[in-house]
Write a structure and sequence with these properties.
Elements lengths: L2 E2 L7 E4 L5 E9 L5 E8 L2 H17 L11 H12 L6 H19 L9 H13 L4 H20 L26 H11 L6 H9 L3 H5 L6 E2 L4 E4 L1 E3 L4 E2 L17 E2 L4 E3 L7 E4 L2 H21 L20 H15 L8 H12 L4 H8 L4 H7 L4 H21 L10
Antiparallel strand pairs: 1-2, 2-3, 3-4, 5-6, 6-11, 7-10, 8-9
Protein name: Site-specific recombinase XerD
Keywords: DNA integration, DNA recombination, DNA-binding
GO biological process, one term: DNA recombination
């Protein structure tokens, strides 16, 4: 039996009693302090030599896969989302990751060996998602999630490359947003006045506050004298767990003894997000009326009222649920006879109105909570009435005098 073993920890190649050629390569040190010596084998010496050289290169490049558990994609993603991610990202970001892992990635890719996953596997998976009816945005979220998860596996030595950085992500078509016209905004506000918490919709349509920002407003954030409201926090979508030991047979949110496991609000994430917004005099009047109505509700509810200081609440003082708020928005559109639209379209509308009014860009950015001018380009839309107005001004500037004298645009007589 040929033997080229080297006792000093260097790589060794030898022919075993089984007739195969074997190689041993020291690639580092294990957690317990002993040498991490890897084994490869092949039928011939040239084959095993090539494997040894490859392993040595991985060692020298610092990309040797970590020894220990052989991960599947499903096991790694589950471990990542349950043990690594919590507490490191915002609640909303975590929710996006968790849904992508549980609903899409584990069922679609979970059986693959982690180190055997290829870019083509991901690309075929994205196409299957869309063929099955998933929106491009959903497939793109799955791509972002697996890219972050594999990046963590790479940092921890479970992978030697992140194939999600190579795979082509699904193409996202930029959604065309059509802001509401002034007449539509007025119709929505007229309809909202007939409903409870009517001022909530004025904050969205007139000032462009995000849903979470409006629902997170507290009375201490409203300065009636100065005519401003301070945006300091955002309402989070509530998350519950069973308080009955999972015996009721319902989803946690419908458990009679449900327990809230997520805080109600979080502070705004950026300096631009923490801001003061101007309150039109009409809105100040409406807010004062709203506060009086809330005081009457508090008196009627008596001991059932939970006083947490929110501007917009349920009939018992609890902060509004974003999901319920969304359904109220859809109902408001129907009752006002206005075309269907996203709640976020109200934010586009408010920023476009500020453009129409000629508010300086820096002031618009402060009101909307933007940190870059690119956001203004994304949210402010040039509407047809704006174009018509500009067209009239151009016409008056270039042909106004000619028209008055009866000349056509081409310069001929009438």
């Amino acid at each position: 039996m040929a033997n080229t073993r080297k006792p000093n920890g260097d790589s060794s190649i030898y022919e075993g009693s089984d007739g195969r050629w074997h190689g041993r390569v020291t690639v580092g040190v294990k957690d317990d302090g002993t040498p991490d010596r890897r084994h490869v084998s092949a039928k011939t010496r040239p084959e095993v030599t090539a494997k040894v050289r490859k392993l040595e290169k991985l060692r020298d490049d610092g990309t040797v896969p970590k020894a220990g558990q052989k991960w599947t994609v499903g096991k790694w993603l589950t471990h990542w989302i349950t043990e690594i991610v919590p507490g490191t990202v915002s609640e909303n970001t975590y929710d996006g990751y968790e849904v992508a892992v549980r609903v899409h990635l584990v069922p679609g890719l979970g059986a693959h060996r982690l180190e055997k996953l290829e870019p083509e596997h991901l690309e075929r998976f994205y196409r299957k998602m869309q063929d099955a009816g998933s929106a491009a945005g959903t497939a793109h979220q799955a791509h972002r999630t697996v890219r972050v998860a594999l990046g963590e596996a790479l940092r921890r030595g479970h992978l030697t490359r992140n194939v999600a950085t190579v795979a082509k992500a699904p193409k996202l078509e930029e959604e065309e947003v059509e802001p509401f016209e002034i007449e539509e905004v007025q119709a929505l506000m007229d309809t909202a006045r007939q409903r409870r918490n009517s001022a909530r919709w004025i904050f969205a349509l007139a000032l462009g506050l995000r849903q979470g920002e409006v629902l997170g407003l507290q009375w201490k954030d409203v300065d009636f004298t100065r005519g401003v409201a301070w945006v300091r926090r955002g309402r989070l979508r509530p998350k519950y767990r069973h308080g009955c030991g999972d015996r009721c047979g319902r989803k946690p949110g419908f458990c009679p003894q449900k327990e809230l496991v997520r805080r109600e609000t979080k502070d705004t994430k950026s300096r631009a997000g923490r801001r003061a917004v101007p309150l039109p005099e009409q809105l100040v009047v409406i807010l004062r009326q709203h506060k009086e109505e809330q005081d009457r509700e508090r008196a009627l509810a008596r001991d059932l009222w939970t006083d947490k200081g929110y501007v917009f609440t349920s009939e018992t003082g609890e902060p509004l649920n974003p999901s319920t708020d969304y359904h109220h928005w859809k109902r408001l559109l129907r009752e006002a006879g206005i075309r269907d639209g996203r709640l976020h379209d109200a934010r586009h509308t408010a920023s476009t109105v500020l453009l129409l009014l000629g508010v300086p860009e820096r002031i618009v950015m402060a009101i909307m909570g933007w940190s870059s001018t690119s956001m203004a380009q994304r949210y402010q839309h040039v509407t047809e009435p704006m174009l018509n107005d500009v067209g009239k001004k151009i016409g008056e500037a270039l042909w106004g005098e000619a028209v008055e004298h009866g000349y056509t645009a081409a310069g001929g007589g009438s």
